[in-house]
Amino acid sequence: MQKFKPQYRRLLFIDRRIKERSYPNCASLAEEWEVSGKTIQRDIDYLRDQLNAPVAYDRLKHGFFYTEPSFSLPAISISESDLFSVCVAQVILGQFRNTPLFNKLSSVFEKIRDSLPDKTAVNPAWMSERILVFPEPATRVNATVWDVLAKAIRDNRRVSIAYAPPAGKGAEASQRKVDPYYLASYKGEWYLSSYCHLRKSIRTFGVSRIRKAEILDEPFSMPAKMTKQRMFGDQFGIIWKDKFEKVRIRFSPAVAPYIRERQWHPLQKINDLRAGGLIIEFTTNHLNEVKDWALSWGPNATVLGPPALAEKVRQSLEQTRANYKRDAHLVKRRSPEDS
Fold first, then answer.
1. Could you report the per-residue pLDDT of 119-139, keeping only the tens digit for each?
2. Rounded to whole angstroms, how far apart are CA atoms 265 and 267?
3. Starting at the edge strand that comes first in sequence, how are the strands of the sheet with 269-272 ordered?
4. Max alpha carbon distance in the chain (Å)?
5. For the chain, which residues score pLDDT lower than 50?
6. Which has fewest Cβ within 10 Å: 14, 18, 53, 75?
């Protein structure tokens, strides 16, 4: 947005430092804001020439000051709702706490907030107490691995990775050469969707299980058909497969209102039943994720198709029933005193 453009944030920062009469110079301002000295000099020139700021340089104190202490920059225009949105976004950022994104974006939000004029300054501490975001249990991502993958995606470069399966810390990592297509966050894990040259097909790797990553001097071309919409557009998962199937699930009247009130799939169709229930239909290639979703509704959901999905659900229910039957002696029986 125009009101948050980087230069204006720097101008507010420079203005604040000058008003503190700490006599900042280009070198000190550049180091604090993490830009070049030439960038700060251009900002000083802009303050003086475009905004008519009475900026002067004190040769004895080696820094800038205002010859008119009452000078103020033109007011920034920001509504209360805009400021509220920025602060809420900072609260939501907590769900990325185990990734390198957290510290970097937290720093950006701090700079935005600190750069606002006094009249719009806000302490968002109350938001963390009254606006709650419950993040998914998240894995931890190696910052070095993350940076390598992000750069490889940006530059369309192949990557050599050492990937360990989810079998404990002692599991031996396999070496893979992959073409990185997308980084996707899904239920507390970051995934790398890529073409695996070892398996000669698209594979999805949990980033937290990548022990090492190295950019290779081998460019690749992104296949035109592997668009974001095609690979992840149906929202049900990130394990991509070529085969798409039509899913039909019947929901009982008890949970039908909860199904109707949400958009579970971009192209879903809902058919109401006379008895009060409904049937939802959509096309997806993420049958394992749909299986878990259907099971989460217990006896209120019945898979009508495809047969492969219905069989997956049936096997899961039978295994669950067998587990409870086998371990019945471990289940603590409630005594009358427990009631």
1. 554 555 555 567 777 777 778
2. 6
3. 269-272, 278-284, 245-251, 301-305
4. 87
5. 1-5, 121, 339
6. 75
C-alpha R_g of the chain? 28
Tell me how crowded residue 256 is: count the other CB atoms within 10 A of its CB. 21
pLDDT, position 304: 97
What pLDDT sits at residue 99? Answer: 73
| Confidence (pLDDT) at 337 | 53
254 and 278 Cβ atoms separated by less than 8 Å: no
Q: What is the pLDDT of residues 70-93, one digit of tens each?
A: 887 765 555 556 666 766 776 677
DSSP sequence for 21-84: T----HHHHHHHHTS-HHHHHHHHHHHHHTS---EEEETTTTEEEESSTT--PPPP---HHHHH
CA distance 66 to 55: 5
Q: How many CB atoms lie within 10 A of CB 145?
A: 23
Ramachandran area for residue 168 (φ above 0: left; ψ -120 to 50: alpha; else beta): left
Q: Which residues pair with 303 in a beta bridge?
A: 249
Q: Which of 97, 176, 167 is nearest to 137 (CA)?
A: 97
